[in-house]
Write a structure and sequence with these properties.
Layout: E1 8-9, E2 16-18, E3 21-23, E4 27-30, H1 36-40, E5 45-46, H2 49-58, E6 67-71, E7 74-77, E8 98-103, E9 106-111, E10 119-123, E11 126-127, E12 130-131, E13 136-141, E14 144-148, E15 151-154, E16 181-185, E17 189-193, E18 196-198, E19 211-215, E20 218-221, E21 230-233, E22 236-239, E23 253-256, E24 259-262, E25 267-271, E26 277-280, E27 283-286, E28 293-297, E29 306-308, E30 311-312, E31 315-316, E32 323-324, H3 336-341, E33 385-392, E34 398-405, E35 415-424, E36 429-436, E37 445-451, E38 460-466, H4 467-470, E39 472-474, E40 483-489, E41 501-504, H5 511-515, E42 522-525, E43 542-547, E44 566-570, E45 579-583, E46 588-593, E47 602-610, E48 625-633, E49 638-645, E50 654-662, E51 665-675, E52 682-688, E53 692-699, E54 702-709, E55 721-726, E56 735-744
Parallel strand pairs: 4-5, 4-6, 6-9, 7-10, 8-13, 9-14, 10-15, 11-12, 13-16, 14-17, 15-18, 17-19, 18-20, 19-21, 20-22, 21-23, 22-24, 23-26, 24-27, 25-28, 26-29, 27-30, 29-32
Antiparallel strand pairs: 1-2, 2-3, 30-31, 33-34, 35-36, 36-39, 37-38, 37-40, 40-41, 42-56, 43-46, 44-45, 46-55, 47-52, 47-56, 48-49, 48-55, 49-50, 50-51, 52-53, 53-54
Length: 745
């Protein structure tokens, strides 16, 4: 322990003089070794971090004033780590639970040691670990912020090690890597020097700042962690996963004379989405000495990226998707002074005409444009296409913009022979026949509907597609007693879309025709021909699409959007390159009701492409799961399912468990099992034969099996519906359903 501090009160000014420093209402001291008597003797001295922060909020500083907080060595818990209460979103925190909200025009935080490990501002909460929401230590409302000689740490997923006094060490709250954040701010500028920023997922060192300069700082993080509008000078990074930025502005994050240590194998990306990444004289080291790819962004990126004198494991590195400016004049622009307030540009914007307003008083520079023609004569384009237009200055400065080019289309076609339907009773097929009034490649769209009411109030879309695929409709047992209607929207590949025309069968489909097909025994779909739209009706031979918030998710604040629950399209991130059924809202739910009255055995086999790339499947462990159900009664929500969910215990795996639904209440059957290969092209099989419920997960040879005995009744055999319920986040946390195969016996 250090010797007691001697305090001298000045007779004229209300300042406190301590070690030659005047402490006053604009200059405060936080020292956990101060006695209570010393701290209470002055309004400028504190031994509790919350009291010092509250004093900053109470200060009546003008917009030009700066409040300085000196912090003596010690570990200061901004949020009580021993408080068992769960931190939740307050009414004014815009969806994020904060440890402390600071408001000050201009703020300086200065650690009183040259070693930032000696001065620690700490918390240890994260999503599902002591908090509901992405717990963040600070929100700072300020114009300018400076920080030096301080460690900002969220020790939710990482141990606090304090070499100065090991008695203050503290183990992490949990082993799972969850969103555990440091600082959000709306500041115009942040300058941090000789600081440490410690967490893992969603580090957020002054996230939200317009521009930041980090000098001689240390960062430890996984994904979605770093501030994109920042210059990093002589900083050290330890990357535990492959995408430390969510994205960056077009002018990009800049690394100058930095060192990056990475645990990543394969490919080290910087951005999860798009953005500029600029690396100048930066050393990258794979900590196992392996050769890896270094790529600025995961996926397509049209933001410019530059590099110069970058090494990997001590050897010169060529960065894919970036421009080497070592021999170009542009390199001179990548200095801290120029990046902050110099005249040399490091970013050029290229905008399509019509998306930018030009001022006639501004300086302009004419461009010399040369056109190239690859075809002797223009041809009519049939489909639109994307193009990236780029421009390069002699200095090496580049810019690009993405354009979508659409063809010039002819007038919409009509019908030379109006649509009609013809039933082939022997084969059980309805044929759609028509003829357009112009020749060409027919791209007309057809949607088939089923209805029984004269006012068509019970109409349900059952199939759709282009004419080439959808001009014939195979009658199913579910069609008995219903009329069929085909709606045709005429179009050629080089024309606009015409007016839709509907045609229907003259009479309901006879039961003898439908019965000839027998009971429905199987279904296979990749959803390309399934109308994906809000459809709440439970009808045999139909998909039901809606959204629902189950009872076991009521703790979490979200609302389902049933009218926009699913869509058919391409996946993202880990599901990039896959196409199928995607969730569009939390709570997305789907049923398939077969055209049969009972079954002894039902099997569902799904091919799934999760967007998450580490095997965790879902955005967070906040009641997020996917249930795959068989032998279900959709009206009462009774049946059996496999539940795939993310838990707080694992950040690179999911937990799978067999469950029983009884009137919407879910209870487990058997034990949970951990599965770390819930990745793209994961095959999930769920089966119930009335005596046993079983499930299998398989991906690249990693197979997990679950089984449990069940006691079913005769009533259970009448339950034949397939069921899916997804309560996870969408987009980059979705589970794309590539294919569903169902079988009943």
């Amino acid at each position: 322990m250090k010797a007691p501090l001697l305090l001298t009160m000045l007779a004229i000014l209300p300042d406190i003089v301590l070690a030659g420093v005047n402490y006053n209402d604009h200059h405060l001291l936080l020292d956990q070794n101060l006695s209570n008597a010393d701290a209470e003797a002055s309004p400028y001295l504190f031994n509790q971090v919350q009291e010092a922060l509250a004093a900053i909020n109470r200060s009546q500083a003008t917009p030009s004033d700066t409040i300085t907080l000196d912090i003596a060595p010690g570990v200061y818990w901004v949020d009580d780590p021993d408080d068992p209460a769960i931190r939740r979103v307050s009414s004014n925190s815009e969806g994020t639970p904060y440890g402390f909200r600071l408001k000050c025009p201009n703020l300086r935080i200065v650690g009183q040691s040259d070693n930032p490990e000696d001065v620690v501002l700490a918390c240890n909460r994260g999503q599902t670990q002591g908090a509901i929401g992405n717990f963040t230590m600070f929100y700072i409302d300020a114009h300018n912020i400076e920080a030096s000689n301080v460690t900002f740490g969220n020790y939710c997923s990482v141990d606090l090690v304090y070499p100065r006094d090991p008695r203050l060490n503290r183990p992490r709250r949990a082993n799972a890597i969850v969103q555990a954040q440091l600082i959000h701010t709306n500041a115009n500028f942040v300058k941090a020097s000789n600081c440490r920023f410690i967490s893992r997922l969603n580090l957020c060192p002054f996230s939200g700042v317009r521009r930041a300069l980090f000098s001689d700082c240390h960062f430890e993080c996984t994904d979605d962690a770093l501030e994109g509008a920042a210059i990093y000078q002589r900083c050290h990074f330890e990357f535990f996963s492959s995408k430390p930025f969510w994205g960056t502005p077009d002018f990009g994050a800049v690394f100058i004379d930095c060192k990056i240590d990475t645990h990543v194998r394969g490919t080290q990306y910087f951005c999860k989405t798009r953005g500029g990444i600029n690396l100048i004289r930066t050393q990258i080291r794979q900590l196992d000495g392996e050769e890896i790819r270094v790529v600025p962004c995961y996926g397509t990126n049209d933001a410019p990226c530059y590099y110069s004198e970058v090494t990997l494991n001590g050897h010169p590195l060529k960065i894919e998707g970036a421009t080497d400016i070592t021999e170009l004049p542009l390199l001179e622009a990548f200095t801290v002074d120029n990046l902050l307030h110099g005249p040399l540009p490091t970013h050029m914007r290229l905008s399509p005409v019509g998306q930018r307003t030009l001022n006639e008083d501004e300086d302009t520079r004419p461009l010399q444009i040369q056109f190239f023609c690859w075809n002797g004569q223009p041809a009519k384009r049939r489909i639109g296409s994307d193009a990236i237009i780029s421009a390069t200055m002699p200095s090496g400065l580049t810019a690009a913009t993405r354009l979508h080019l659409t063809p010039q289309l002819d007038a919409a076609p009509g019908f030379a022979r109006k649509p009609s339907l013809k039933i082939d009773r022997k084969k059980g097929i309805v044929h759609l026949d028509y003829q357009l009034n112009v020749d060409g490649n027919d791209m007309s769209h057809v949607t088939w509907y089923r209805f029984s009411m004269t006012d068509k109030s019970d109409t349900v879309a059952v199939r759709h597609g282009l004419t080439a695929d959808a001009s014939c409709y195979a009658i199913s047992p579910a069609d008995a007693g219903y009329r069929l209607m085909a709606c045709v929207t005429p179009k050629l590949d080089i024309t606009h879309t015409g007016t839709r025309v509907a045609v229907q069968t003259e009479a309901p489909i006879g039961r003898n025709i439908a019965a000839a097909k027998g009971e429905e025994s199987s279904l296979t779909t990749d959803f390309h021909d399934v109308p994906i739209r809000f459809q709440p009706k439970l009808q045999a031979g139909c998909w039901t699409f809606d959204a629902f918030k189950p009872a076991d998710t009521q703790t979490y604040n979200w609302l389902p959007q049933p009218h926009n629950a699913w869509f058919y399209g391409h996946g993202v991130d880990g599901a990039a390159g896959s196409i199928g059924l995607n969730e569009a809202t939390k709570g997305a739910r789907a049923f398939y009701t077969p055209a049969r009255k009972s079954c002894k055995l039902m099997t569902a086999k799904l091919l799934i492409a999760p967007a998450k790339t580490a095997g965790q499947g879902f955005g967070s462990a906040t009641g997020q799961y996917l249930d795959i159900g068989v032998k279900f009664d959709a009206k009462t929500l009774t049946g059996y399912a496999l539940r795939i969910r993310r838990t707080p215990d694992y950040d690179r795996a999911v937990v799978m468990q067999l469950v029983r639904y009884q009137d919407g209440i879910v209870s487990p059957i058997g034990d949970e099992k951990v599965y770390s290969s819930y990745l793209t092209s994961c095959e999930i099989t769920v089966m119930s034969d009335g005596k046993e419920l079983s499930a299998t997960a398989s991906h690249n040879g990693d197979i997990l099996t679950l089984s449990a005995p069940i006691q079913s009744s005769a009533a259970d055999d009448s339950h034949c519906t397939f069921y899916m319920q997804h309560t996870g986040s969408t987009g980059a946390s979705a589970s794309l359903i590539e294919r569903v195969e169902l079988e009943w016996k």
